[in-house]
Specification:
alpha/beta; 15% strand; binds calcium ion; 33% helix; 9-stranded mixed beta sheet; 3-stranded antiparallel beta sheet
Length: 560
């Protein structure tokens, strides 16, 4: 008996030693798809909170850009010992530039991650490093936009390169290629996910794109500039400026003002789905025809009070929700869905996702709208040609967005130059409606989008899905489904059922060919209804109360 145990111990000890060696050997891996790849380290991590896995750090295409900065595409790969035979690419966020932890965020606020489930997981920085490529005089961490190759790496090339490298390392380490591959991301990561289905349709079997910025360049140049200018006009009309003399967006609306708007939308639209439950399931029917008169009714008859809005505030909301247009009245990005997630005071518990992105916290003493901050750096640095180097501190970024002209500046999106031979539209867009290659290989895509997303309009995603559906003669749902989350802000948050396992639904679709008719979602502890569940329905279906059973339970609802 003792001898058997000793032998087993020796066996497992030597197996561990073999795994350690096998992992370390990846540092000298030969014949990787891109010869300009260096494996910096490969270390076997023993099981801890995470399962035992080989952790690999690599980089490729080391070079100096036209703006004299050093660039490389860096990636982070984790290969679990108990591999489930699958590959998971974790998408990025914002303007990337961070390596990511390669744990495999499943989105939908899930408690586990892909590595724990046995997936080989990669994340990457998309070809620039925020710690290195950061110039406060030229767009801060978006200074990479001043180098044409770094733009292309961010747009599409790094995801191609890293997918190939990761799959090759998986083959070397396990002796076989992954049986199934998944790309999962939100926001910019959602754009990447959709882009892969269009530009590299052979790479991934399943794609989960949450709150996708698939028209990020248009959303920023037109949408974010339009919102910033419109809210700026509200601040100017009220005579509220920051210490640089710029209109103070944070003060354009108080928290109470936004709650008035949210309440008016709920009053007009909650029961369009047949149930007064604080959730606007029939959001497509919640149009300006219903909401506009209610907003007009909120306008103060005299001076501004806490119970009414100024006529300027009312008109600005109409303008924002109609979306950006040029002087000919042509829509430049998309309109927005009226939904209750615009409101929410700090004391309500759930985050102020709409306000944080569109305006910034009311109590801030500096302009802090996220779309104005990220938008100004990205539009001046990446999405216009040639780029306009803009200081990342002070008031320059806001001034740049306030100066955008919706007739004149649209051409900068499609412009090319001798140095920048690809336009922003060329390298950034993920809006193709031709998904035939992805569909024909059996690819499946799940998109989840908050109706109250203040960054990327769900209307834009719906317009795109409808176009894809037309191209596919009404059968798009056979391979791409869109799930709307009423009340949800960007990726999460808001008065919403924002906890959902869309990833398992996707895997089941890919591997068992069972398409998700619904995804059950749960409201978080800080929402008005902790623990409430609802089915998220594949667009154009919506959740409808069955007429009996608890209104807190998804089982009492049907997708119709
Ligand atoms: Ca309702």
């Amino acid at each position: 008996m003792v001898r058997v145990i000793a032998a087993l111990a020796l066996l497992s000890c030597s197996a561990a030693a073999q795994d350690t060696q096998k992992c370390a050997a990846l540092t000298s891996a030969k014949s990787l798809p891109n010869p300009a790849t260096t494996i910096k380290s490969a270390v076997l991590n023993p099981a801890s909170a995470l399962p035992e896995h080989c952790e690999v750090l690599g980089q490729m295409n080391d070079r100096v850009g036209v703006n004299s900065q050093h660039y490389a595409i860096k990636f982070h790969l984790r290969l679990p010992t108990n591999w489930n035979g699958r590959f998971f690419f974790e998408g990025g966020g914002g303007s990337n530039g961070a390596l990511g932890n390669a744990l495999g965020n499943l989105q939908g606020q899930q408690r586990t991650n892909a590595l724990t489930l046995g997936y080989a997981v990669v994340s990457q920085d998309s070809g620039h490093d925020n710690a290195v490529n950061n110039d406060p005089n030229a767009n801060g961490t978006v200074t990479f936009g001043l180098d044409p190759q770094a733009r292309i790496d961010f747009g599409y090339n790094s995801y191609d390169q890293v997918t190939q490298a990761a799959k090759a390392l998986i083959r070397i380490y396990y002796g076989k290629t992954p049986e199934k591959s998944y790309y999962v991301g939100c926001s910019e990561g959602g754009r990447e996910a959709m882009m892969m289905s269009q530009r590299f349709p052979d790479y991934f079997d399943g794609i989960l794109a949450c709150s996708p910025g698939f028209q990020l360049a248009k959303a920023a140049l037109f949408g974010h500039a339009w919102d910033t200018q419109t809210f700026g006009a509200v601040a100017r009309a009220a005579g509220i400026y920051d210490r640089f003399g710029a209109p103070f967006l944070n003060k354009a609306y108080t928290d109470e003002d936004l709650d008035l708007v949210s309440n008016a939308i709920v009053a007009g639209c909650d029961e369009l789905d047949g149930l007064k439950d604080g959730i606007i399931d029939n959001f497509p029917a919640c149009t300006s025809a219903i909401v506009a008169p209610r907003l007009v009714a909120l306008a103060c008859k005299g001076p501004k009070r806490t119970t009414c809005l100024t006529p300027v505030q009312v008109a600005a909301l109409q303008k924002i929700y109609n979306g950006p247009s040029n002087s000919k009245g042509e829509m430049l990005y998309a309109d927005w869905a009226w939904d209750r997630g615009i409101g929410g005071k700090a004391g309500d518990g759930y985050n102020q996702g709409w306000r944080a992105w569109k305006l910034g916290a009311y109590d801030s003493n500096v302009n802090s709208s996220i779309i104005a901050g990220l938008g100004s750096a990205a539009v001046s640095g990446i999405f216009t040609t040639p780029p306009t180097p803009t200081p990342s501190t002070g008031a320059a970024g806001l001034a740049y967005l306030l100066s955008i002209d919706f007739d004149r500046d649209a051409a900068k999106l499609t412009a090319e130059s001798e140095t920048f031979t690809k336009s922003a539209l060329d390298f950034m867009m993920a809006s193709s409606t031709d998904l035939s290659a992805f569909k024909n290989r059996g690819g499946k895509m799940v998109i989840v989008h908050g109706v109250s997303d203040p960054v990327f309009s769900i209307k834009d995603t719906i317009h795109w899905w409808n176009d894809v559906n037309k191209v596919n003669n009404g059968a798009a749902a056979e391979f791409v489904r869109l799930f709307a989350v009423p009340g949800m802000n960007h990726c999460a948050g808001g008065p919403a059922t924002d906890q959902f396992d869309a990833f398992t639904a996707l895997v089941t679709w890919v591997e068992k060919n069972t398409a998700p008719a619904k995804i059950v979602a749960t409201a978080g502890p800080a929402t008005p209804w902790p623990g409430r569940t609802r089915p998220l329905c594949a667009y154009p279906l919506q959740a409808r109360y069955n007429g009996s059973g608890s209104v807190e339970e998804a089982a009492s609802f049907t997708c119709r």
